[in-house]
Amino acid sequence: MRILIVDDEVIIRTGLCTVIDWKELGLELLPAASSAEEALERIPQEKPHIVLTDIRMSGMDGIELAREIKLILPDTEIVILTGYDDFNYAQQALRGGVTDYLLKTSRPEEIIKAALKAQQNIMDKWESMKQDNLQQAALRSQLLDRALNRGLHDDEEARTQLHHWFRKNGVDSSADEGVGIARQVLLVSCSGWVTFANLLQGAAENMLYELLPCVTLMQKDHFVMVVRYEVGVTDVPGLHKALQRVTETLKCTVFASLGPVAYDDEGLRASYCTAKEVFAYQGLLGPSGLYTLQDIQDRSGSRTVCSEKEETELAAILMKDNATDLRHWVNLKVRTQLEDAAATPMSVQGYLQSIVVAGHRWLERASTAEQDQSVLSALSKLEGEGRPEEEVFKVLSGIMGIFHQGLHQNKYAYIHKAIAYIRDNLHQPISLQQVAGFVHINPNHFSEVFKRETGYTYLEFVTRERMKLATDLVQSTQLKVSDIARRVGYEDIKYFTGQFKKHTGRAPSEYRQGGKD
């Protein structure tokens, strides 16, 4: 904060400059002025916050100087010093906007108090202005958010305020509410700062605000810009240049999506919607660059359901309880999807959700009646935020943890693990020796404990599980009976049909036609 001393008496000037330690008070002392005229000449450039002036000087007096200063810098605090204890002078000074009126005979501490009072007044004004600016910025942000998302066609006052803001920032160039003015919407996201990531968005926003005729709206992980269209400045080459400058200056990665040029408010909304649509492809188009609708219009969507082979791979990994293998598998599947040239955000989300559903299905198959089924429904779903591979891994890791935690709490955990293994391998021959080997238990001991825990012999249990799966496939799919037989581990169709009829009382075709009794 700067202070200027004005007095035509050199002894007074020098005394005021040297007797008081202005720096200690947090004030920068400007070179003293020997007249009001000199002060007025310097004030526009030096912009003092506080002026300490004599009231009677040759030429212009202190009261007139105070009036002139208030015209140039209205927020300047002025303290009058005089050798005359004259009430009329004091009244004139206070009417002229003077903060304080002191006699030159005042002690240094009284002058210090007056300066500190002026300093506090300025700080209070700054804080008030800061709060007003924050409030105004928040209101403008709300206004722009409404205009882009819902439109302002039913609110004349809001539309007028919005275009006043546009004109003030060069987005509109006339007073006709921007009709016919070419504008477009740009969405920008910056990454690359490990620490102070939030500050990066703000720094990029400030840079582009200085470089382009625009207004901005800060969002959670990106910011929105409404830019006046101008060839060579805000066309695609011009925006590329501005974004490149941000990249080089801030040492960051910049991804941006651009909506089409608009000539009215409804067109601006459409430009924003298009920019949002393109922005959703951020993980698919690459980490950086400027993209438009043309870059995504040929994408028809990749597959949205994981394959039977992938579901089998996932089941094997979840059964092994190997977090490293699970992370590698998820990363591979996500990366493959993101690199698919046909992929869209919706198709990728559908595919990743199908992986999560496959994980849930595995847990339901692997879980037994003794386990708390409420835990299954409490599992988190994909939230759609953050890196997709981390989201999928988080959910699948939770599924894997629930299953194996349940095993550790059970005396015969290996039986539950064996049941899960059986249910995952019903499509192929699975002998008792094979399953006992999987859980590292002697086959004879395994057979004995298995019957005691499940109430069935090993063969009875496997056949029962095969038939449960077969009835489900007969009811819920249109697969051929031969395909269903193979799906549940039977190569001999006649034998499968016999087993099916034995367990349900009907042949597969009759069961499908009549449904369950």
UniProtKB/TrEMBL annotation:
Superkingdom of this protein's organism: Bacteria
Keyword Phosphoprotein included in the entry's annotation: yes
Residue positions, PTM 4-aspartylphosphate: D54
Domain named Response regulatory: residues: 2-119
Database matches in PROSITE patterns: HTH_ARAC_FAMILY_1, HTH_ARAC_FAMILY_2, RESPONSE_REGULATORY
SMART domains: HTH_ARAC, REC
Main location: cytoplasm
PANTHER family per UniProt: HISTIDINE KINASE-RELATED, TRANSCRIPTIONAL REGULATORY PROTEIN HPTR
Name of the protein: DNA-binding response regulator
